[in-house]
Design a protein that fits this description.
Strand order of the largest sheet: 3-2-1-4-8-6-9
Helix content: 40-55%
Largest sheet: 7 strands, mixed
Number of strands: 12
Oligomer: single chain
Number of helices: 13
Number of domains: 2
Length: 375
């Protein structure tokens, strides 16, 4: 019976929230080591048409209190005012360096190529790869470096709080963490799982020697989801990786409004697995199990048992979503719009599948890139 299956899946998802909260612990407070004990860090930021956000991101790193720091920004062929903004920041602070990026050669995607250019020029013993819209609170990098060194990590992923404004951002963006915390997210940091890795655009802090041993972004030249791919490669080459919840000190407003969210995620959702048909199948199952209880409760022909089981599934799902929202500092009210979130994200996944499997191209910020088919 589908209603019973939905109730069981919802109960398991709720339990997994507690498992994943342990798998992604909060970033500890730093004891505040002396500057002599701290390694040098290069923050590598790829920036393509980021005139509205890149200044705030860079200033947050400069004001973060880390003593041995350089911020290296790769202007990835921007067509807006990003170059002028970066030039002003570099002139005002010698810790900021700007690289004029070049178009990626054949076989490369734009962002991995920009990150590779930045890493090649970086001087730090540690590299922090962070997107141009991510803001770090004072002391965040100190805490991250101290934790990574204390745990002998090669790579530490920092999960940032998703800043949302308005209805659609509040409903849709929390799915990023709901899918991790209410699913098998803990497998991403499991040492034995070499096919998965926990990485995020909000911050991948990686030791330089581990980055080089993994082949750097040259190994990831065609990786659409490059942050996850980097964590996977570091783990595959023997580096220890972990992820921490940095919701109190790392913040990102990834997209603005419904249109940007749909365009942004339809670019890469279908790349979550090596085979795009797996993504399509999982989306179909996810949509069916997620939406059936809401339909069954409202349908006039549903029997008492189906209604009861469906109501239980809804309550368990909402409870899980509320717990994830409180953990990740997302809007709690979004949990009550779960069916809308599922419907829109299913549409995003279908469009992403079409672009990957049929059109075989990625269009993002004025750049169209053909992608190879899967073997």
């Amino acid at each position: 019976m589908l209603a019973a299956l939905c109730a069981v899946v919802s109960a398991v998802s709720l339990l997994l929230v507690f498992v994943n909260r342990r798998a992604f612990p909060p970033l500890p407070e730093s004891p505040g080591p002396s500057s002599e004990d701290l390694p040098s860090v290069t923050v590598v930021i790829p920036a393509r048409n980021e005139e509205h956000s890149v200044s705030g991101a860079i200033r947050s790193h400069l004001d973060g209190g880390y003593p041995r720091l350089e911020v290296l920004v790769v202007d990835d062929r921007s067509t807006d005012r990003t170059p002028e903004v970066l030039a002003g920041l570099a002139a005002a602070d010698e810790r900021v360096r700007v690289i004029a990026g070049v178009e990626p050669p054949a076989g490369w995607l734009g962002k991995p190529h920009a990150l590779w250019q930045g890493a090649e020029a970086a001087r730090g013993a540690w590299l922090l790869f962070a997107d141009a819209d991510v803001v770090y609170a004072p002391g965040a990098l100190l805490r991250a470096v101290a934790h990574a060194r204390a745990k002998d990590l090669a790579l530490l992923c920092l999960l940032g709080r998703l800043e949302t404004r308005g209805f659609w951002e509040g409903v849709l963006m929390p799915n990023l963490y709901a899918s991790v915390y209410m699913g098998p997210g803990f497998l991403l940091v499991a040492d034995g799982n070499l096919r998965g890795g926990a990485g995020a655009g909000s911050g991948n802090l990686v030791r330089r020697d581990a980055y080089d041993a993994a082949g750097g972004h040259e190994t990831l030249r065609d990786a659409v989801v490059d942050d996850l791919a980097l964590a996977r490669e570091v783990k595959r080459t023997g580096g220890r990786t972990r992820a921490c919840a940095a919701f109190d000190c790392v913040t990102v407003r990834m997209y603005r409004g419904f249109r940007e969210i749909f365009r942004g995620f339809s670019k890469n959702v279908a790349w979550a697995f090596r085979n795009p048909w797996v993504v399509l199948a999982l989306v179909a199952v996810f949509a069916a199990i997620s939406l059936f209880p809401w339909v069954a409760v409202l349908a006039p022909g549903s029997g008492p048992a189906v209604r009861a089981l469906s109501a239980a599934a809804i309550l368990l799902t909402v409870a899980g979503r509320v717990l994830v929202a409180r953990t990740t500092r997302s809007p709690v009210w979004s949990a009550f719009f779960h069916p809308i979130m599922v419907a829109v994200w299913s549409a995003i996944a279908v469009v992403s599948f079409w672009r990957r499997a049929v059109l075989r191209r990625i269009v993002w910020r004025g750049r169209t890139t053909s992608v190879r088919s899967e073997e």
